[in-house]
UniProtKB/TrEMBL annotation:
The organism of origin for this protein: Populus tomentosa
Gene Ontology MF terms in the entry: large ribosomal subunit rRNA binding; structural constituent of ribosome
The keyword Nucleus is annotated on this UniProt entry: no
Positions with biased composition (Low complexity): 285-296
UniProt entry keywords in alphabetical sequence: Ribonucleoprotein, Ribosomal protein
Domain Large ribosomal subunit protein uL10-like insertion, first and last residues per copy: 114-183
GO CC, one annotated term: cytosolic large ribosomal subunit
Function: Ribosomal protein P0 is the functional equivalent of E.coli protein L10.
Protein name according to UniProt: 60S acidic ribosomal protein P0
Family (UniProt): Belongs to the universal ribosomal protein uL10 family.
Quaternary structure annotation from Swiss-Prot or TrEMBL: P0 forms a pentameric complex by interaction with dimers of P1 and P2.
Region (Disordered): 285-320
Gene Ontology BP terms: cytoplasmic translation; ribosomal large subunit assembly
Length: 320
């Protein structure tokens, strides 16, 4: 005979397992398990086997175990898990990359029919086309105001129809029609709600951030600090380069406006007094380019002169 554990013994075993996992793993994904069946959960466990462990349980039991284990170990970071244990959730303990584990969990989604009273997670649109139903089934379409026509003895939907909107409850007529059409509009699986890493809790969207995103956010933060520092004249490392440049501009402006000078300002003053000095280098180039055409013309004249002399030496013209 197989001895069945009592409820008290099951609670003790569960508490021991949860505490062991808390000590062994420093990373945890908190995932919602609404509408996830036992077979689907087993497939997820098999897919994550190796680096991750999925643990489900009652929230009250998990909160109690976490609180007591935190007091025993003195690790207050575990208490950050307690506010996350709301609703139908499970814990995924992992030693792998949180982003990769989250993506692996998202793969195990199963299509599900629209059951009566269920809140639609997405919009449900019935596509146009032949339904394969006989004309006696047109009452379903009429109740839902779906335009149809009879084509070759079957009901055909003329235009796409938004049957259910996201957030609405599925009615009996909608559920019956979708079942007759063989449409399973919804898909369910574990949905990661939060991530826990060594006491830090953050949204799963953080896992999608790339290095470029982080650099961009850091640069934006530095820019804001620099702007605030400059506006309040409060020195910071972010604003220091701008402050030095602005200070140098002020000193240079004073030197230009007065007789006070220093080596770095001499060249600026010289330029302001006589800008033509800085354009001298370009003059020879202009002269050479402008003088090129007359020189070429003179060369052409020299080439033509011998030809004219040779004609005169002939001693006759066309009229002789």
């Amino acid at each position: 005979m197989v001895n069945k554990l009592s409820k008290a013994e099951k609670k003790i075993a569960y508490d021991a397992k949860l505490c062991q996992l808390l000590d062994e793993y420093s990373q945890i994904l908190i995932a919602a398990a609404d509408n996830v069946g036992s077979n689907q959960l087993q497939n997820i466990r098999r897919g994550l086997r190796g680096d991750s462990v999925v643990l489900m349980g009652k929230n009250t039991m998990m909160k109690r175990s976490v609180r007591i284990h935190s007091e025993k170990t003195g690790n207050k970071a575990f208490l950050n898990l307690i506010p996350l244990l709301q609703g139908n959730v499970g814990l995924i303990f992992t030693k792998g990359d949180l982003k990769e584990v989250s993506e692996e969990v998202a793969k195990y989604k199963v299509g599900a029919p629209a059951r009566v009273g269920l809140v639609a997670p997405i919009d449900v649109v019935v596509p146009p086309g032949n339904t394969g139903l006989d004309p006696s089934q047109t009452s379903f379409f009429q109740v839902l105001n779906i335009p149809t026509k009879i084509n070759k003895g079957t009901v055909e939907i003329i235009t796409p129809v938004e049957l259910i909107k996201k957030g609405d409850k599925v009615g009996s007529s909608e559920a019956a029609l979708l079942a007759k059409l063989g449409i399973r509009p919804f898909s369910y699986g574990l949905v990661v709600l939060s991530a826990y890493d060594n006491g830090s809790v953050f949204s799963p969207e953080v896992l999608d951030l790339t290095e470029d995103d982080l650099v961009g956010k850091f640069a934006a933060g530095v820019s804001m600090i620099a702007s605030l520092s400059l506006a309040t004249s409060y020195p910071t490392l972010a604003a220091a380069p701008h402050m030095f440049i602005n200070a140098y501009k002020n000193v240079l402006a004073v030197a230009v406006a007065t007789e006070y000078s220093y080596p770095q300002a001499e060249k600026v003053k010289e330029f302001l007094e006589d800008p033509s000095k800085f354009a001298v280098a370009a003059a020879p180039v202009t002269a050479a380019s402008s003088g090129g055409a007359p020189a070429a013309a003179k060369e052409e004249e020299k080439k033509e002169e011998p030809a004219e002399e040779s004609d005169d030496d002939m001693g006759f013209s066309l009229f002789d």
